[in-house]
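Let us practice reading a record.
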Amino acid sequence: MVKYKVTLLKNECIMCGACAAICPDFFEMDEDNVSHLKNSIQNGDKWELIINTENEKAEIQEAVDACPVDIIKIEEEN
C-alpha cells in the first residue's frame, strides 16, 4: 500500500483560509487564524500527517492547488 506524507509549513501561512474552506476534513484555522493540519504532528517547523488512500490524496491535492503561498506538500512516503 502506498502511503503519503502531507506537510504544512504553518509559520508561512498567510491566513487566507483556502485550505480549510476546500478541505475541511483535513484543515482548519486555529485560534490564531492560521491553517492547522488536523491530526498532524509537529516536526521542526513542519506539521506532518501520513495518509493511506488515493481518495485522501485527491482531497488534499485540492488544498495544495488552492494555497497561494505553496506551503502544503504531498509526497510519497517510503
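A brief commentary: The longest strand covers residues 3-8.
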